[in-house]
Amino acid sequence: PASQTWSPFPFPPGPLLSTPQPPFLFFFISYLHIFVYTLLITKEAMGTMELSGILGRSVTFPLEIPAAEQFENAAWTVNTNSLVTVTPGKPPNVVLIDKTNYRGRLEILDESYSLQITHLRMEDTGQYRAAVNTDKGSVTKRFTLRVSSLYPFLLQLASLPRILCREGKGSPVLVFLHD
After folding, report:
1. Cα→Cα distances 103→56, 59, 157, Å
2. How many distinct helices (H) and strands (E) make up the chain?
3. Is there a contact between 172 and 163 (Cβ–Cβ < 8 Å)?
């Protein structure tokens, strides 16, 4: 009988392409690919900050630029649309790109360059991204904003009108029922 030597590695000695490979090598490599892919997805998901907003109120997307870094500029997008660009100044220099949906509702906070949206609408729900450049490098901050109504409820009184408020709608729906 041929002598067998134990090895801590899952590969047989010699060139990998010229010798038949055991099935466990295929499974090992497959699981390795799945593991690495899962790490990449998890890292992407961990990098997204979840924000909740209330219809009609305000929400702030914090940039959190380290004190040791000098802010140079930022470009904000919502979903795939450009929203606003910001450069340093007192107050910050802001160029609004989406002039229809956000006119009069965006503010860049002086010291932090964070984005604030006021008078939230249901359609503000989405994926926001800030591409930030500092003197030390570039970073992308990701946010998911979910806007909901403050009072999603159904109020029913004997023979009085019913007031129905649903999440996802901007205003209450009045329903008058006759008995």
Report:
1. 15, 16, 41
2. 1, 12
3. yes
Q: Are strands 115-117 and 59-61 parallel, antiparallel or unpaired?
A: antiparallel
What pLDDT score was predicted for residue 127?
96
Q: Which ranges of the chain would DSSP assign to H, the alpha helix?
A: 23-46
Query: Which residue do the tokens 């901007």 mark?
Result: 170
β-strands 48-54, 137-148: how paired? parallel
Name the nearest CA neighbour of 53 among 143, 113, 174. 143
Torsion angle in degrees (nearest 10) through CA of 78, 83, 88, 89: -130
For the chain (179 residues), the mean pLDDT of every run of 10, in chain order, is 57 53 57 54 63 93 91 94 92 87 91 93 95 94 91 55 57 56
| Extents of the domains making up the chain | 49-148, 150-179
Pairing of strands 59-61, 154-155: unpaired
CATH superfamily of 49-148: Immunoglobulins (2.60.40.10)
